[in-house]
Amino acid sequence: MKKSYFQVLTIILVSIIAVTPFNILGVEGSMGYSGGISVADPIEKSEYQYTEMCFLTGVPIKLSGTLTIKKTDKNDVVTATYTYRLSNAESNVTLNRVAIYTTTRETKANGQITESTRLSRLPTEVINIGGTTYRLIESSFTQSMITDPKAAINYHTGEFSEKKVYAIGTGTVRDTVTVTISGRTYAYDQYWSSTETQRINMMVEADLKNADPPVKWGGAAEIIVSGATLYQVDYAENEPTYISFDGGYVKKKWMESTLDYTARFPEFDKNGRPTDVLKTYTNTESLSTQMELSRLMVPDIKHLNGHWAEEPISILFGLEILPGTGENFKVGKYLTRREFVGILMNTLKDIPADPDVRVATTVNTRRSSSKNAPEISPFKDVEPGDLYYEEIKKAYQKGITLGDGNGNFRPNNYITRAEAIKMIVSALGLEKLAPYPASTTPFTDNDSIPAYARNAASVAAILGIIEPDYMGRFNPSMRLTNEIMAKLMYDLISYMGSELVKDYRDRIIDF
Q: How many CB atoms lie within 10 A of CB 503?
Protein backbone atom coordinates (compact mmCIF):
# COMPACT_ATOMS: atom_id res chain seq x y z
CA MET A 1 0.00 0.00 0.00
CA LYS A 2 1.18 3.47 -0.79
CA LYS A 3 2.16 5.71 2.12
CA SER A 4 0.30 8.62 0.56
CA TYR A 5 -3.02 6.75 0.75
CA PHE A 6 -3.95 8.10 4.19
CA GLN A 7 -3.15 11.69 3.22
CA VAL A 8 -5.10 11.72 -0.03
CA LEU A 9 -8.08 9.72 1.22
CA THR A 10 -9.89 12.79 2.51
CA ILE A 11 -9.48 14.49 -0.87
CA ILE A 12 -10.95 11.60 -2.83
CA LEU A 13 -13.63 10.82 -0.26
CA VAL A 14 -16.59 11.74 -2.40
CA SER A 15 -19.96 10.08 -2.82
CA ILE A 16 -20.12 8.02 0.37
CA ILE A 17 -23.80 7.50 0.87
CA ALA A 18 -26.50 7.50 3.52
CA VAL A 19 -27.20 4.51 5.71
CA THR A 20 -30.95 4.74 5.02
CA PRO A 21 -32.15 4.81 1.40
CA PHE A 22 -32.38 8.24 -0.14
CA ASN A 23 -35.72 8.28 -1.94
CA ILE A 24 -34.58 10.50 -4.80
CA LEU A 25 -33.71 8.14 -7.61
CA GLY A 26 -32.37 8.49 -11.09
CA VAL A 27 -35.23 6.28 -12.23
CA GLU A 28 -35.76 6.86 -15.93
CA GLY A 29 -38.56 9.37 -16.50
CA SER A 30 -38.13 11.56 -13.42
CA MET A 31 -37.28 14.52 -15.69
CA GLY A 32 -40.05 13.96 -18.23
CA TYR A 33 -39.43 13.90 -21.98
CA SER A 34 -39.49 17.56 -22.98
CA GLY A 35 -35.85 18.44 -22.44
CA GLY A 36 -36.30 19.55 -18.84
CA ILE A 37 -34.57 18.96 -15.50
CA SER A 38 -35.93 18.26 -12.05
CA VAL A 39 -35.04 17.73 -8.41
CA ALA A 40 -37.39 16.21 -5.87
CA ASP A 41 -39.34 18.37 -3.45
CA PRO A 42 -38.31 17.23 0.05
CA ILE A 43 -41.78 18.01 1.46
CA GLU A 44 -44.33 17.16 -1.24
CA LYS A 45 -44.24 13.49 -2.27
CA SER A 46 -44.00 12.86 -6.03
CA GLU A 47 -43.50 16.58 -6.70
CA TYR A 48 -40.36 17.93 -8.35
CA GLN A 49 -38.93 21.37 -8.93
CA TYR A 50 -38.71 21.57 -12.69
CA THR A 51 -37.21 23.72 -15.48
CA GLU A 52 -37.39 23.43 -19.27
CA MET A 53 -36.76 25.71 -22.24
CA CYS A 54 -39.55 26.87 -24.56
CA PHE A 55 -38.53 27.49 -28.20
CA LEU A 56 -41.96 28.07 -29.79
CA THR A 57 -41.26 31.73 -30.62
CA GLY A 58 -37.76 31.13 -32.00
CA VAL A 59 -36.23 32.72 -28.91
CA PRO A 60 -35.40 30.48 -25.89
CA ILE A 61 -37.58 31.16 -22.84
CA LYS A 62 -36.84 29.55 -19.48
CA LEU A 63 -39.89 28.08 -17.76
CA SER A 64 -39.81 26.94 -14.13
CA GLY A 65 -42.30 25.47 -11.70
CA THR A 66 -43.42 22.03 -10.61
CA LEU A 67 -43.68 18.58 -12.14
CA THR A 68 -45.86 16.05 -10.35
CA ILE A 69 -45.47 12.36 -11.25
CA LYS A 70 -47.92 9.66 -10.22
CA LYS A 71 -47.54 6.06 -11.42
CA THR A 72 -49.61 2.93 -10.95
CA ASP A 73 -48.13 -0.49 -11.68
CA LYS A 74 -50.66 -3.23 -12.36
CA ASN A 75 -49.48 -6.56 -13.76
CA ASP A 76 -46.41 -4.98 -15.40
CA VAL A 77 -48.45 -2.24 -17.05
CA VAL A 78 -47.54 1.18 -15.66
CA THR A 79 -49.83 4.19 -16.07
CA ALA A 80 -47.95 7.44 -15.39
CA THR A 81 -49.46 10.92 -15.13
CA TYR A 82 -47.12 13.89 -15.56
CA THR A 83 -48.55 17.27 -14.51
CA TYR A 84 -46.55 20.44 -15.30
CA ARG A 85 -47.23 23.91 -13.90
CA LEU A 86 -44.60 26.29 -15.26
CA SER A 87 -44.16 30.02 -15.77
CA ASN A 88 -41.79 32.88 -16.48
CA ALA A 89 -43.12 36.12 -14.97
CA GLU A 90 -40.51 38.32 -16.65
CA SER A 91 -41.48 37.09 -20.12
CA ASN A 92 -45.19 36.83 -19.22
CA VAL A 93 -45.36 33.11 -20.02
CA THR A 94 -47.37 30.29 -18.43
CA LEU A 95 -47.51 26.58 -19.30
CA ASN A 96 -50.00 23.96 -18.11
CA ARG A 97 -49.53 20.40 -19.34
CA VAL A 98 -50.96 17.00 -18.36
CA ALA A 99 -49.66 13.91 -20.16
CA ILE A 100 -50.62 10.31 -19.39
CA TYR A 101 -48.38 7.48 -20.56
CA THR A 102 -48.90 3.72 -20.62
CA THR A 103 -45.81 1.50 -20.32
CA THR A 104 -45.86 -2.24 -20.97
CA ARG A 105 -43.01 -4.42 -19.67
CA GLU A 106 -41.78 -7.77 -20.91
CA THR A 107 -39.10 -9.88 -19.25
CA LYS A 108 -36.85 -11.68 -21.73
CA ALA A 109 -35.23 -15.10 -21.41
CA ASN A 110 -31.94 -13.58 -20.17
CA GLY A 111 -33.65 -11.55 -17.46
CA GLN A 112 -33.50 -8.23 -19.27
CA ILE A 113 -36.69 -6.17 -19.28
CA THR A 114 -37.99 -4.27 -22.30
CA GLU A 115 -40.48 -1.43 -22.00
CA SER A 116 -42.73 0.14 -24.60
CA THR A 117 -44.35 3.49 -23.77
CA ARG A 118 -47.14 5.31 -25.58
CA LEU A 119 -49.50 8.17 -24.83
CA SER A 120 -52.80 7.03 -23.32
CA ARG A 121 -54.61 9.95 -24.97
CA LEU A 122 -53.95 13.40 -26.36
CA PRO A 123 -52.24 15.46 -23.64
CA THR A 124 -53.75 18.75 -22.55
CA GLU A 125 -51.25 21.57 -22.97
CA VAL A 126 -51.78 25.31 -23.13
CA ILE A 127 -48.94 27.83 -23.31
CA ASN A 128 -49.61 31.55 -23.05
CA ILE A 129 -46.75 33.74 -24.29
CA GLY A 130 -47.30 37.47 -23.88
CA GLY A 131 -51.04 37.13 -24.40
CA THR A 132 -50.80 34.72 -27.34
CA THR A 133 -52.14 31.21 -26.74
CA TYR A 134 -50.43 28.09 -28.07
CA ARG A 135 -52.74 25.08 -27.70
CA LEU A 136 -51.66 21.49 -28.35
CA ILE A 137 -53.87 19.97 -31.06
CA GLU A 138 -51.84 16.93 -32.17
CA SER A 139 -49.34 14.77 -30.34
CA SER A 140 -47.61 11.42 -30.70
CA PHE A 141 -45.02 9.81 -28.43
CA THR A 142 -43.14 6.52 -28.44
CA GLN A 143 -40.36 5.21 -26.25
CA SER A 144 -38.48 1.93 -26.17
CA MET A 145 -36.33 1.09 -23.15
CA ILE A 146 -34.29 -1.87 -21.99
CA THR A 147 -33.28 -2.55 -18.40
CA ASP A 148 -30.54 -4.96 -17.43
CA PRO A 149 -31.09 -5.75 -13.73
CA LYS A 150 -27.95 -6.84 -11.93
CA ALA A 151 -27.40 -7.76 -8.31
CA ALA A 152 -26.38 -4.27 -7.18
CA ILE A 153 -27.36 -2.01 -10.08
CA ASN A 154 -30.17 -1.69 -12.63
CA TYR A 155 -28.87 -0.33 -15.94
CA HIS A 156 -31.27 1.46 -18.33
CA THR A 157 -30.96 2.75 -21.87
CA GLY A 158 -33.41 3.57 -24.63
CA GLU A 159 -34.77 5.99 -27.20
CA PHE A 160 -37.85 8.19 -27.42
CA SER A 161 -39.45 10.37 -30.07
CA GLU A 162 -42.27 12.88 -29.93
CA LYS A 163 -44.14 15.16 -32.27
CA LYS A 164 -46.33 18.04 -31.12
CA VAL A 165 -48.44 20.47 -33.15
CA TYR A 166 -49.61 23.70 -31.52
CA ALA A 167 -52.33 25.98 -32.85
CA ILE A 168 -51.65 29.68 -32.33
CA GLY A 169 -54.63 31.82 -31.37
CA THR A 170 -58.22 30.97 -32.29
CA GLY A 171 -58.51 32.01 -35.94
CA THR A 172 -60.39 29.97 -38.52
CA VAL A 173 -57.17 29.54 -40.49
CA ARG A 174 -54.75 28.29 -37.90
CA ASP A 175 -51.15 29.32 -37.52
CA THR A 176 -49.19 26.35 -36.20
CA VAL A 177 -45.86 25.45 -34.64
CA THR A 178 -44.63 21.87 -34.92
CA VAL A 179 -42.05 20.52 -32.48
CA THR A 180 -40.28 17.24 -33.23
CA ILE A 181 -38.12 15.62 -30.56
CA SER A 182 -35.82 12.60 -30.66
CA GLY A 183 -33.73 11.55 -27.70
CA ARG A 184 -31.69 8.87 -25.96
CA THR A 185 -31.80 8.06 -22.26
CA TYR A 186 -29.05 6.55 -20.12
CA ALA A 187 -29.78 5.82 -16.46
CA TYR A 188 -29.00 3.51 -13.58
CA ASP A 189 -30.50 2.84 -10.15
CA GLN A 190 -28.73 1.53 -7.08
CA TYR A 191 -28.50 2.16 -3.35
CA TRP A 192 -25.42 4.39 -3.36
CA SER A 193 -26.27 6.72 -6.26
CA SER A 194 -28.60 7.08 -9.21
CA THR A 195 -28.58 9.23 -12.30
CA GLU A 196 -30.39 9.88 -15.57
CA THR A 197 -29.01 11.62 -18.67
CA GLN A 198 -30.85 12.48 -21.87
CA ARG A 199 -29.40 13.64 -25.21
CA ILE A 200 -32.14 15.38 -27.22
CA ASN A 201 -32.46 16.84 -30.71
CA MET A 202 -35.36 19.22 -31.22
CA MET A 203 -36.75 20.70 -34.45
CA VAL A 204 -39.17 23.66 -34.43
CA GLU A 205 -41.15 24.63 -37.54
CA ALA A 206 -43.60 27.54 -37.67
CA ASP A 207 -46.26 27.91 -40.37
CA LEU A 208 -47.84 31.38 -40.07
CA LYS A 209 -50.66 31.39 -42.59
CA ASN A 210 -52.27 34.55 -41.21
CA ALA A 211 -49.16 36.67 -41.70
CA ASP A 212 -49.14 39.12 -44.59
CA PRO A 213 -47.66 37.59 -46.59
CA PRO A 214 -47.71 34.04 -45.07
CA VAL A 215 -44.34 32.95 -43.72
CA LYS A 216 -42.57 29.82 -42.57
CA TRP A 217 -39.48 29.57 -40.41
CA GLY A 218 -37.62 26.81 -38.58
CA GLY A 219 -34.83 26.16 -36.12
CA ALA A 220 -33.20 23.45 -34.06
CA ALA A 221 -31.85 22.84 -30.58
CA GLU A 222 -29.48 20.29 -29.10
CA ILE A 223 -30.16 19.63 -25.44
CA ILE A 224 -28.39 17.52 -22.82
CA VAL A 225 -30.14 17.13 -19.47
CA SER A 226 -28.86 15.18 -16.51
CA GLY A 227 -29.79 14.64 -12.89
CA ALA A 228 -27.86 12.89 -10.15
CA THR A 229 -27.91 12.21 -6.44
CA LEU A 230 -24.63 13.30 -4.86
CA TYR A 231 -23.09 12.59 -1.47
CA GLN A 232 -19.96 13.60 0.36
CA VAL A 233 -18.40 12.79 3.72
CA ASP A 234 -16.15 15.37 5.34
CA TYR A 235 -14.13 15.14 8.53
CA ALA A 236 -14.98 17.70 11.22
CA GLU A 237 -12.39 18.19 13.96
CA ASN A 238 -13.62 18.98 17.45
CA GLU A 239 -12.30 22.27 18.87
CA PRO A 240 -12.77 21.62 22.61
CA THR A 241 -9.95 19.74 24.28
CA TYR A 242 -12.05 18.03 26.93
CA ILE A 243 -14.62 16.12 24.93
CA SER A 244 -15.51 12.43 25.06
CA PHE A 245 -14.71 11.70 21.42
CA ASP A 246 -12.41 12.89 18.68
CA GLY A 247 -13.69 14.63 15.59
CA GLY A 248 -16.01 12.70 13.33
CA TYR A 249 -17.48 12.54 9.87
CA VAL A 250 -20.39 14.57 8.57
CA LYS A 251 -22.45 13.11 5.76
CA LYS A 252 -23.80 15.57 3.20
CA LYS A 253 -26.36 14.72 0.56
CA TRP A 254 -28.06 16.70 -2.18
CA MET A 255 -29.45 16.35 -5.68
CA GLU A 256 -28.56 18.45 -8.70
CA SER A 257 -29.62 18.59 -12.34
CA THR A 258 -28.08 20.37 -15.31
CA LEU A 259 -29.53 21.48 -18.66
CA ASP A 260 -27.16 22.45 -21.49
CA TYR A 261 -28.57 23.66 -24.78
CA THR A 262 -27.39 25.08 -28.09
CA ALA A 263 -30.17 26.47 -30.28
CA ARG A 264 -30.08 28.00 -33.76
CA PHE A 265 -33.01 30.10 -34.93
CA PRO A 266 -33.45 32.90 -37.46
CA GLU A 267 -33.10 36.46 -36.34
CA PHE A 268 -36.34 38.42 -36.51
CA ASP A 269 -36.69 41.97 -37.79
CA LYS A 270 -38.51 44.77 -35.96
CA ASN A 271 -41.82 43.56 -37.42
CA GLY A 272 -41.28 40.06 -36.09
CA ARG A 273 -40.56 38.51 -39.47
CA PRO A 274 -37.71 35.98 -39.84
CA THR A 275 -34.56 36.96 -41.67
CA ASP A 276 -31.95 34.83 -43.43
CA VAL A 277 -29.51 35.32 -40.55
CA LEU A 278 -29.24 32.46 -38.05
CA LYS A 279 -28.62 33.29 -34.41
CA THR A 280 -27.04 30.83 -31.98
CA TYR A 281 -28.19 30.63 -28.35
CA THR A 282 -26.16 28.69 -25.78
CA ASN A 283 -26.78 28.46 -22.06
CA THR A 284 -26.73 26.21 -19.01
CA GLU A 285 -29.48 25.96 -16.43
CA SER A 286 -29.32 24.06 -13.16
CA LEU A 287 -31.38 22.99 -10.16
CA SER A 288 -30.30 21.59 -6.82
CA THR A 289 -31.75 20.67 -3.46
CA GLN A 290 -30.60 22.09 -0.17
CA MET A 291 -27.75 20.11 1.34
CA GLU A 292 -28.79 17.83 4.19
CA LEU A 293 -26.30 17.17 6.98
CA SER A 294 -26.09 14.24 9.35
CA ARG A 295 -23.40 12.95 11.67
CA LEU A 296 -21.96 9.45 11.45
CA MET A 297 -21.25 7.40 14.53
CA VAL A 298 -17.72 7.88 15.88
CA PRO A 299 -16.35 4.33 16.35
CA ASP A 300 -14.01 3.27 19.13
CA ILE A 301 -10.87 2.51 17.12
CA LYS A 302 -8.18 4.33 19.11
CA HIS A 303 -6.06 1.21 18.81
CA LEU A 304 -5.80 1.99 15.09
CA ASN A 305 -4.46 5.54 15.46
CA GLY A 306 -2.00 6.17 12.65
CA HIS A 307 -2.80 2.97 10.78
CA TRP A 308 -2.99 3.44 7.00
CA ALA A 309 -6.55 2.01 6.97
CA GLU A 310 -7.82 3.99 9.95
CA GLU A 311 -9.94 6.36 7.88
CA PRO A 312 -11.78 3.85 5.64
CA ILE A 313 -12.39 1.64 8.68
CA SER A 314 -13.83 4.59 10.62
CA ILE A 315 -16.08 5.53 7.71
CA LEU A 316 -17.39 1.98 7.24
CA PHE A 317 -18.26 1.76 10.93
CA GLY A 318 -19.91 5.18 10.74
CA LEU A 319 -21.99 4.05 7.76
CA GLU A 320 -22.83 0.86 9.69
CA ILE A 321 -21.31 -1.29 6.97
CA LEU A 322 -19.15 -2.98 9.61
CA PRO A 323 -21.04 -4.32 12.65
CA GLY A 324 -20.35 -3.15 16.16
CA THR A 325 -18.62 -0.06 17.51
CA GLY A 326 -15.03 -0.80 16.48
CA GLU A 327 -13.22 -1.71 19.69
CA ASN A 328 -12.96 -5.36 18.65
CA PHE A 329 -11.78 -4.69 15.09
CA LYS A 330 -8.46 -6.46 14.54
CA VAL A 331 -6.12 -5.69 11.68
CA GLY A 332 -4.34 -8.70 10.25
CA LYS A 333 -7.29 -11.00 11.01
CA TYR A 334 -8.27 -13.18 8.06
CA LEU A 335 -11.91 -13.15 6.92
CA THR A 336 -13.91 -16.27 6.19
CA ARG A 337 -16.09 -16.53 3.11
CA ARG A 338 -19.10 -16.34 5.42
CA GLU A 339 -17.92 -13.07 7.00
CA PHE A 340 -16.97 -11.50 3.67
CA VAL A 341 -20.35 -12.19 2.06
CA GLY A 342 -22.11 -10.77 5.11
CA ILE A 343 -20.15 -7.52 4.85
CA LEU A 344 -20.41 -7.39 1.04
CA MET A 345 -24.21 -7.72 1.09
CA ASN A 346 -24.40 -5.08 3.82
CA THR A 347 -22.34 -2.81 1.56
CA LEU A 348 -24.39 -3.36 -1.59
CA LYS A 349 -27.85 -3.22 -0.01
CA ASP A 350 -31.08 -3.47 -1.98
CA ILE A 351 -31.91 -1.20 -4.91
CA PRO A 352 -34.63 1.23 -3.73
CA ALA A 353 -37.97 1.17 -5.53
CA ASP A 354 -39.27 4.04 -7.65
CA PRO A 355 -40.88 6.36 -5.05
CA ASP A 356 -43.49 7.61 -7.54
CA VAL A 357 -44.99 4.16 -8.20
CA ARG A 358 -48.04 2.74 -6.46
CA VAL A 359 -48.31 -1.00 -7.05
CA ALA A 360 -51.89 -2.17 -7.51
CA THR A 361 -52.32 -5.55 -5.84
CA THR A 362 -55.07 -8.12 -6.03
CA VAL A 363 -56.26 -10.11 -3.05
CA ASN A 364 -55.52 -13.82 -3.26
CA THR A 365 -58.28 -15.69 -1.45
CA ARG A 366 -56.58 -19.07 -1.84
CA ARG A 367 -54.44 -20.25 1.04
CA SER A 368 -50.79 -20.75 0.33
CA SER A 369 -49.69 -24.35 0.77
CA SER A 370 -46.08 -23.26 1.13
CA LYS A 371 -46.62 -21.28 4.34
CA ASN A 372 -45.24 -24.03 6.52
CA ALA A 373 -42.79 -25.41 3.96
CA PRO A 374 -39.31 -25.94 5.44
CA GLU A 375 -36.54 -23.52 4.52
CA ILE A 376 -34.19 -25.04 1.95
CA SER A 377 -30.62 -23.76 1.90
CA PRO A 378 -28.97 -23.22 -1.50
CA PHE A 379 -25.82 -24.91 -0.15
CA LYS A 380 -25.28 -28.25 1.55
CA ASP A 381 -22.86 -26.83 4.11
CA VAL A 382 -24.89 -23.76 5.16
CA GLU A 383 -27.99 -24.20 7.29
CA PRO A 384 -30.87 -21.80 8.03
CA GLY A 385 -30.07 -19.95 11.22
CA ASP A 386 -26.31 -20.02 10.62
CA LEU A 387 -24.39 -16.78 10.95
CA TYR A 388 -24.97 -14.67 7.80
CA TYR A 389 -27.26 -17.33 6.34
CA GLU A 390 -29.70 -14.76 4.92
CA GLU A 391 -26.87 -12.79 3.31
CA ILE A 392 -25.37 -15.95 1.77
CA LYS A 393 -28.78 -17.00 0.46
CA LYS A 394 -29.39 -13.55 -1.05
CA ALA A 395 -25.93 -13.54 -2.64
CA TYR A 396 -26.75 -16.90 -4.24
CA GLN A 397 -30.16 -15.73 -5.44
CA LYS A 398 -28.63 -12.62 -7.01
CA GLY A 399 -25.91 -14.59 -8.77
CA ILE A 400 -23.07 -13.07 -6.76
CA THR A 401 -21.80 -16.47 -5.67
CA LEU A 402 -22.62 -19.99 -6.82
CA GLY A 403 -20.36 -21.77 -4.33
CA ASP A 404 -17.75 -24.31 -5.38
CA GLY A 405 -19.84 -25.92 -8.11
CA ASN A 406 -20.51 -29.02 -6.02
CA GLY A 407 -23.32 -27.62 -3.90
CA ASN A 408 -21.03 -26.31 -1.15
CA PHE A 409 -20.26 -22.74 -0.12
CA ARG A 410 -17.29 -23.51 2.14
CA PRO A 411 -18.35 -20.79 4.62
CA ASN A 412 -15.46 -21.23 7.05
CA ASN A 413 -12.67 -21.17 4.48
CA TYR A 414 -10.65 -17.98 4.38
CA ILE A 415 -11.63 -15.89 1.38
CA THR A 416 -8.99 -15.10 -1.22
CA ARG A 417 -8.48 -11.97 -3.24
CA ALA A 418 -9.59 -13.75 -6.42
CA GLU A 419 -12.82 -14.97 -4.81
CA ALA A 420 -13.62 -11.54 -3.37
CA ILE A 421 -13.06 -9.68 -6.65
CA LYS A 422 -15.13 -12.24 -8.53
CA MET A 423 -18.08 -11.64 -6.19
CA ILE A 424 -17.76 -7.84 -6.38
CA VAL A 425 -17.66 -7.67 -10.18
CA SER A 426 -20.51 -10.20 -10.41
CA ALA A 427 -22.58 -7.90 -8.19
CA LEU A 428 -21.85 -4.94 -10.49
CA GLY A 429 -22.70 -7.04 -13.56
CA LEU A 430 -19.76 -5.67 -15.53
CA GLU A 431 -17.72 -8.76 -16.41
CA LYS A 432 -18.45 -8.18 -20.11
CA LEU A 433 -16.08 -5.20 -19.97
CA ALA A 434 -13.20 -7.69 -19.97
CA PRO A 435 -11.45 -8.38 -23.30
CA TYR A 436 -12.98 -11.11 -25.43
CA PRO A 437 -12.33 -13.93 -26.18
CA ALA A 438 -9.03 -14.07 -24.30
CA SER A 439 -9.14 -12.27 -20.97
CA THR A 440 -5.98 -10.44 -20.00
CA THR A 441 -5.19 -8.29 -17.01
CA PRO A 442 -2.55 -5.61 -16.36
CA PHE A 443 -1.02 -7.67 -13.53
CA THR A 444 2.39 -9.28 -13.81
CA ASP A 445 1.01 -12.52 -12.34
CA ASN A 446 -1.81 -12.67 -14.88
CA ASP A 447 -1.17 -16.38 -15.61
CA SER A 448 -1.60 -17.23 -11.92
CA ILE A 449 -5.11 -15.77 -11.73
CA PRO A 450 -7.69 -18.59 -11.86
CA ALA A 451 -9.73 -18.68 -15.05
CA TYR A 452 -12.98 -18.09 -13.15
CA ALA A 453 -11.64 -14.78 -11.73
CA ARG A 454 -9.58 -13.43 -14.64
CA ASN A 455 -12.41 -11.43 -16.23
CA ALA A 456 -13.32 -9.99 -12.85
CA ALA A 457 -9.70 -9.02 -12.10
CA SER A 458 -9.43 -7.29 -15.48
CA VAL A 459 -12.65 -5.33 -14.91
CA ALA A 460 -11.79 -4.42 -11.31
CA ALA A 461 -8.50 -2.94 -12.55
CA ILE A 462 -10.31 -0.95 -15.26
CA LEU A 463 -12.78 0.41 -12.70
CA GLY A 464 -10.05 1.32 -10.22
CA ILE A 465 -11.43 -0.93 -7.49
CA ILE A 466 -8.10 -2.75 -7.14
CA GLU A 467 -4.48 -1.80 -7.74
CA PRO A 468 -1.40 -3.97 -8.24
CA ASP A 469 1.12 -4.31 -5.44
CA TYR A 470 4.60 -2.76 -5.64
CA MET A 471 5.65 -5.53 -8.03
CA GLY A 472 2.59 -5.19 -10.24
CA ARG A 473 0.95 -8.38 -8.94
CA PHE A 474 -2.70 -9.21 -8.30
CA ASN A 475 -1.92 -11.94 -5.74
CA PRO A 476 -5.05 -14.07 -6.42
CA SER A 477 -4.43 -16.55 -3.59
CA MET A 478 -3.77 -13.91 -0.95
CA ARG A 479 -6.16 -14.16 1.99
CA LEU A 480 -8.14 -11.03 2.76
CA THR A 481 -7.52 -9.39 6.12
CA ASN A 482 -9.88 -7.01 7.90
CA GLU A 483 -8.03 -3.87 6.80
CA ILE A 484 -7.71 -5.00 3.16
CA MET A 485 -11.43 -5.77 3.17
CA ALA A 486 -12.19 -2.29 4.56
CA LYS A 487 -10.25 -0.59 1.77
CA LEU A 488 -11.88 -2.84 -0.82
CA MET A 489 -15.39 -2.01 0.44
CA TYR A 490 -14.52 1.69 0.56
CA ASP A 491 -13.23 1.59 -3.02
CA LEU A 492 -16.36 -0.27 -4.11
CA ILE A 493 -18.63 2.36 -2.53
CA SER A 494 -16.53 5.15 -4.04
CA TYR A 495 -16.93 3.60 -7.50
CA MET A 496 -20.67 3.10 -7.12
CA GLY A 497 -21.22 6.53 -5.61
CA SER A 498 -18.83 8.68 -7.64
CA GLU A 499 -17.29 7.11 -10.72
CA LEU A 500 -20.59 5.88 -12.17
CA VAL A 501 -22.02 9.40 -11.89
CA LYS A 502 -19.03 10.72 -13.81
CA ASP A 503 -19.54 8.18 -16.60
CA TYR A 504 -23.30 8.69 -16.91
CA ARG A 505 -23.24 12.48 -16.49
CA ASP A 506 -19.94 14.35 -16.69
CA ARG A 507 -18.42 12.45 -19.59
CA ILE A 508 -21.59 12.73 -21.69
CA ILE A 509 -22.12 16.41 -20.96
CA ASP A 510 -18.49 17.21 -21.83
CA PHE A 511 -18.54 15.04 -24.95
A: 14
